Amino acid sequence: MAEDNKKPHWLDEARHIDWLYYALIGLCLALFAADFITHRHAHYSVEGLYGFYALFGFIAYALIVGAGWLWRRIVLRKEDYYDG
To answer: How far apart are the C-alpha atoms of 40 and 3, rounded to whole Å?
Structure first.
């Protein structure tokens, strides 16, 4: 029987996961702050609001997740669907 001498992956340590989490939050905050210092040529007036794209993206993502949850309820089959 072969020994399992695998090195642990760098994502196996909790401190690396925390670092990635804080890096993602920092990136999101930096992009949101950049929204205040850039000049945008908005086609619609609502696009000119600060943080519009962040809010729009969050709402769109939440709707996609909700639709997936609903779709799973519709197409889910019982565990023994193909038996007998």
So the answer is: 59
Instruction: Please provide the average confidence, as pLDDT, over all residues in the chain.
Output: 87
Q: Which domain holds residue 63?
A: 10-75
* 25 part of a folded domain: yes
d(Cα 35, Cα 48) in Å, to the nearest integer? 10
Q: Supply the pLDDT for residue 18.
A: 93
User: Which two tokens mark 8?
Assistant: 């642990």
Give the pLDDT score at 3: 57
State phi, psi for 69 to the nearest 5 degrees: -65, -45
- Counting the structural domains of the chain, the total is 1
In angstroms, the CA 29 to CA 23 distance is 10
Is 71 domain-assigned? yes
Q: What residues of the chain score a pLDDT lower than 50?
A: 1
